[in-house]
Amino acid sequence: MILPALTEATSPLFRPVKYSLFPPLGLATLAGYLSPDDEITIQDEHVAPLRLDDDPDLVVIQVYITSARRAYRIADRYRARGVRVVLGGLHVTSLPAEAAPHADTIFLGPGEDTWPRFLADLAAGRPAPVYRSTERTLAGLPRVRRDLIDRSRYLVPNSLVVSRGCPHVCDFCYKEAFFEGGKGFYTQTVDDALAEIEALPGRHLYFLDDHLFGNRRFATALFDGMRGMGRLWQAAGTVQSVLAPDLLEKAVDCGLRSLFVGFETTSQENLREQRKQQNVGRDYTAAIRRLHHAGVMVNASFVFGMDADDGTVFDRTVEWAIEQGVETATFHVLTPYPSTALYRRMAAQGRLLHSDWDRYDTRHAVFRPRLMSPRTLEEGYWRAYRDFYRWSSIFRSAAAQPDLVGRVRHVAYSAGWKKFEPAWDLLIRARQMRRARPVLENVLSGLGSAGGLEPPGGRVEGVRRGGVEGDRRAGGVPAHQVDHPLEQRVVVAHPATDDDALPRPLAQGGGDHRLDVVAAVEADQAEPRPDPVLDEARPAGVDAVRHRPRVPRAGHPVRVQPDH
Ligand code: B12
Ligand code: SF4
Fold first, then answer.
1. Tens digits of residue pLDDT in 513-530
2. Domain encompassing residue 473
3. Is the pLDDT of residue 407 over 80?
4. CA pair distance 166, 212, nearest whole angstrom
5. Pocket of ligand 1 (CB under 6 A)
6. Do 108 and 25 share a domain, yes or no?
7. End-of-domain residue from the set 100, 132, 164
8. Structural domains in the chain (count)
9. Does residue 178 share a domain with residue 112?
10. What is the CA radius of gyration of the chain?
């Protein structure tokens, strides 16, 4: 399974940190449908060179617009050797006729209904050339195969999506085209979402959902369920959802510390033109103030080049964002993705400049803007980044924070992303991204000041059974405290703050058991250590033990589940 990268991400000279943030969740999701006996590899070119000299039964490639050319080249290469290739993802859905000649099978839309259908057809020896998704549900989604992901290569291995799509319909967004033919917004069940969250090691989470707050009832139940888990998390939401009463508070209570917000433009005319109705007439300043007072950092997203934008939009927007005390900003050049309403409008008006998909990367002007030249648009975009992330801007912007902790956190977070790129580059090359995770968590938690948050693991209670007493606070428990198997129970304090140390096989009293991770220990106790007590306790004939890592909720007694 391959996620090809766009050229910038593969530069031997310099790798921007953003390509080492998130693992290929889409492919890991699809891998969940394959048999446990299948030999599967996931290759992500954003973090490592691809190995293409193998001879698999099936090659699966996820295609984004900016990696389409590369994806087709890889596909052609495999097919020339007689290997079956299937293509899917956003760009294939937008332009199936372009993708089809490079594949044995193409997939349009989300894969949760079509992919298992294809696998059954393949097993029966009659796979179709095209599968189009129509049935939209996340019920019964198999476990995402995170075990196929090399966590050491990503700063945020705990990325997840608990919904698909978005309830809104902005003209420039990929969403309407991708979800055509079925529901455009749907969620997991709250229980499934919570189970996935509980299974993730470490503390930090990043929800990649387009709009985590899009279904109020779902979001409320999710946040209620996450209370006390001790998580720190980031996500994306709209201005409207930030201003809505109560929901933000619930999110903050269970660990929200930074939100990506799609402001897009400060012009009402632009908002109307792009049908971004949910932003029209909203008080952006009030939304930012509300987030800051709740201790949530803001990543503000802006798009340049809409029809009401002239050459002054860049300086105006940057100045506005600095005045508001926005911590980080993501700027984009408006990009008409094929099959979107915006693309159709630009094409009808003869304003598209070319179809070189590599440059549809939100950094190049690929259309003629109405009130400026394409060059002014590109130069303004780069200038906006430079101006926003100047030291003087960072300090000025930090001064708008309501308190000192907010100001220090602001400087640390903002500078961390854009002022230390060489340091990120070194970490990426040394495959040491996990070293930066505690720093990120510390900054998110307000440099250790986030009073309301419980540490992961919470209190370990009620596990005394003839062995070591387990009523200790997380963080102070030595690794591998063992509640000895007098009563067929074993309790292991596992280094839950270290994401990479997965629980090792342990056994208790006969049969195949599932053990819970019940406490956190210091981050430096990273390596799983041999444990002679448990080894001795392992009965003969036990050769497999399943684990379900779990971060217990604070204040709840932790029970070890002896048999499942
Ligand atoms: C995380 C993310 C990234 C991450 C990581 C990407 C990754 N590892 O997958 C990084 C930072 C690297 C990234 C980079 C970029 N991104 Co990005 N990213 C996202 C984001 C927020 C979430 C992706 C995700 O994980 N979704 C959840 C999983 C479960 O869904 P999925 O990946 O789509 O996979 C499902 C289906 O697509 C389908 N599927 C996919 N492939 C296949 C293959 C087969 C065979 C089958 C059956 C099905 C199938 O089935 C999967 C399960 O349902 C999306 C927004 C979004 N909602 O998709 C933007 C998004 C995909 N990015 C986008 C863009 C523009 C970019 C950049 C160009 C940004 C830039 N300027 O650098 C680069 C380009 C990257 C590239 N390779 O070309 C656009 C894509 C537009 C397009 N038409 O392609 C999006 C939609 C954002 C937006 N709203 O505009 N991105
Ligand atoms: S709110 Fe965001 S995700 Fe939803 S349609 Fe608009 S741009 Fe797309």
1. 333 333 322 222 333 333
2. 454-564
3. yes
4. 9
5. 3, 5-6, 18-19, 21-22, 24-26, 29-30, 46, 60, 62, 64-67, 86, 88-91, 107, 110-112, 114-115, 161, 173-174, 208, 210, 337, 361-363
6. yes
7. 132
8. 3
9. no
10. 25
Helix, strand, coil % over all residues of the chain, rounded to 5: 35, 15, 50
Identify whether residues 123 and 168 lie together within a single domain: no
Same domain, 401 and 460: no
| CA 460 and chain centroid, separation | 30
Q: Chain-centre distance of CA 27, in angstroms?
A: 13
* Domain assignment present for 447: no
pTM over 0.85: no
CA of 64 to the centre of ligand 1 (A): 6
- Distance (Å) from CA 277 to ligand 1 centroid: 24
Q: Which residues contact 417 (CB under 8 A, 6 or more apart)?
A: 17, 328
- Ligand 2 centroid distance, CA of 276 (Å): 8
Helices (H), 268-390: 268-273, 284-293, 313-324, 341-348, 374-388
- How many other C-beta atoms lie within 10 A of the C-beta of residue 54? 11
Are 252 and 372 contained in the same domain?
yes
Is residue 147 included in any domain, yes or no?
no
Do residues 342 and 333 lie in contact, with contact meaning Cβ atoms separated by under 8 Å? no
**Based on the domain organization, do 386 and 501 belong to the same domain?**
no
Shared-domain flag, residues 236 and 332: yes
State which H helix or E strand residue 120 sits in: helix 114-123
Q: Within a domain: residue 108?
A: yes
Cβ atoms of 411 and 398 within 8 Å: the answer is yes
Instruction: Compute the distance from residue 169 Cα to the ligand 2 centre, in Å.
Output: 6
295 and 391 belong to one structural domain: yes
Per the domain annotation, does 141 fall within a domain? no
CATH number at residue 307: 3.80.30.20
- Alpha-carbon span 92 to 19, nearest angstrom: 21
Q: What is the pLDDT of residues 421-432, one digit of tens each?
A: 788 888 888 888
Looking at residue 78, its pLDDT comes to 98
| Residue that finishes a domain, picked among 377, 394, 411 | 411
The number of CA neighbours under 13 Å toward the Cβ of 171 is 19
Task: Kindly state the average pLDDT of the residues 129-150.
Answer: 95
Mean pLDDT value across residues 306-322: 98
Q: Which ligand is nearest to the CA of 94?
A: 1
Hey, which bits of 76-173 come out as E strands? 84-88, 105-108, 130-132, 159-160, 163-165
